[in-house]
Specification:
heterodimer, A: 250 residues, mainly alpha, MetI-like fold, 12 helices, 0% strand, globular, B: 251 residues, alpha/beta, Rossmann fold, 4-stranded antiparallel sheet, ATP-binding (chain B)
């Protein structure tokens, strides 16, 4: 565990040390680029306020991401059993990913107000597609021998799906889940940026408007922490659902 | 043919306009091993897949099959199919893999477990119940696949080159082991193989398929009882089979 975490920690420490040294030695104004120590100080001093905003962001991200997982699973099952629907809908799903968030986020606020709904919808829109793609690819990668064996035993399409396709898609789905998790917090912040009462997005906007880049970076640090926490949660889920020898080695 | 045997008649399988198998007929008695041999691509596995009820949608088949006088269902509970690869589910334990057919048939997990558990020692798998396929050797995996096929208790077993992926020693051991299992609980086996040694040392009779389109070209009984078979006694039969196969142009 430690041997895996050590290399990125060393790289991060080197980058922070370089950044700190540059700020101190070059005399950069803290209004332009605050040193890491200043960002840390701002984070500690404003921890209560940042925690409230981070909590709001986490709530939206968690609800949106959970809903997105459910939607991706349901849609993937439907498309797996209805290949014609997949052919008809996939171009629309692809097109939905080309819509710039910067245009969509304000429209969502305009249509659905400042509440939870527009932000959750935005998170679903951003995170749903990677999961859908990886699920469908996972179902397709089910070894034909397993499907045929089940069919020869009299299993119907539903049983073949539940006993072979769904478990076979697990590794692929976990990859999609990890990719989507990295988007979830960013999408939430973007939605809050477009309009919200609480959340890291609106906090960053206010900090920027008051010329406090240290607070902006403190909020960015927290958002990165939230994403890492979400990834750790998925890692736990992966270990919990592991079957086969990998379950013993984890 | 015995009363409850499997009768297949007039099986024709097409891939579009191409005829893969034409007017193929055969009978399987209720016990014994029938080997199905023929050049690559002659349709041996395709016939097996049709009998197992897993012919791909891209192929069209017509023909009739009856088991003991009743029409064959596709798939039929009286038939167990074992594909070329062991097809064990990597995320299931060996006990769960062995019980898979019973679970598909609707048995509860505890009932299926109770049915397979006593069979593990006879299949040389005692102690592997909680292990996963990746933790077993090739021979043990194949025995686990046999256990999964045999525990469903179908009278007819369709084996698609079940020993082809094994090393020579494991293959010989497993062939002897299969004969012992069949002696304990006699069944009818249709064995698809490329290996003339395997066909002649295991089978009671050998069906030779011709290619393009696939059809039964010859049916040869193996007149020597399994206990009396040796390299020397089987040599003439192998020569006959080799000649038959070499006469067929490659597909």
């Amino acid at each position: 565990m430690l041997s895996r975490a050590l290399p990125p920690l060393i790289v991060a420490a080197c980058l922070l040390a370089g950044w700190e040294a540059y700020c101190r030695l070059a005399g950069v104004s803290p209004l332009i680029l605050p040193a890491p120590s200043a960002v840390l100080r701002a984070l500690v001093l404003n921890r209560a306020e940042i925690a409230v905003h981070a909590g709001a962001t986490l709530q939206v991200a968690a609800i949106g991401f959970s809903a997105s997982v459910a939607v991706a699973l349901a849609v993937s099952v439907a498309l797996h059993f209805l290949p014609r629907a997949e052919r008809a809908l996939m171009p629309l799903f692809v097109a939905s990913q080309t819509v710039p968030l910067v245009a969509l986020a304000p429209l969502m606020i305009l249509w659905f107000g400042f509440g939870l709904l527009p932000k959750v919808l935005l998170v679903i829109l951003v995170t749903f597609f990677p999961m859908l793609l990886t699920l469908l690819a996972g179902y397709r990668q089910t070894p034909p021998a397993l499907r045929e064996l089940l069919a020869s035993m009299g299993a119907g399409r539903g049983q073949v799906f539940l006993r072979a396709c769904l478990p076979a898609a697990r590794p692929s789905f976990l990859s999609g889940l990890r990719v989507s998790a990295t988007y979830a917090i960013v999408a939430t912040i973007f939605a809050e940026y477009a309009g919200a009462r609480r959340g890291l997005g609106i906090y960053i906007l206010q900090a920027k408007n008051t010329f406090r880049p240290d607070l902006v970076l403190a909020a960015v640090l927290v958002s990165a922490g939230l994403t890492l926490a979400l990834l750790a949660l998925i890692g736990g889920l992966a270990r919990l659902t592991a079957r086969g020898p990998e379950a013993r080695h984890d | 043919m015995t009363e409850a045997g499997l009768d297949l008649s007039g099986l024709t399988i097409r891939a579009g306009a191409r005829v893969l198998v034409e007017d193929l007929s055969m009978t399987l008695p209720t016990t014994g091993i029938t080997a199905l041999i023929g050049p690559s691509g002659c349709g041996k596995s395709t016939v097996l897949r049709w009998l197992a009820g897993i012919l791909p949608d891209t192929l069209a088949a017509e023909g009739q099959a009856r088991i003991g006088g009743r029409p064959l269902r596709l798939p039929d509970p009286a038939i167990g199919f074992q594909p070329q690869a062991d097809a064990l589910f990597p995320w299931l334990t060996i006990a769960q893999n062995a019980a898979l057919g019973l679970r598909v048939a609707g048995l509860s997990a505890p009932a299926a477990r109770a049915r397979v558990a006593p069979l593990f020692p006879a299949f040389g798998l005692a102690g592997t119940e909680a292990m996963y396929p990746a933790e077993l050797s090739g021979g043990m995996r194949q025995r686990a696949a046999f256990l999964r096929t045999m525990v469903r208790d179908g009278q007819f077993l369709l084996l698609d080159e079940p020993f082809s992926a094994l090393d020579a020693v494991t293959r010989l051991r497993l062939q002897g082991w299969l004969l012992a299992r069949l002696a304990e609980r006699p069944r009818s086996v249709l064995l698809v193989t490329h290996d003339l040694h395997e066909a002649t040392s295991l089978a009671d009779r050998i069906l030779v398929m011709a290619a393009r389109p696939g059809r039964i070209r010859a049916e040869i009984a193996v007149p020597i009882p399994p206990s009396a078979r040796s390299e020397h006694s089987l040599a003439p039969l192998r020569e006959t089979l080799k000649t038959l196969l070499l006469e067929d142009p490659p597909t």
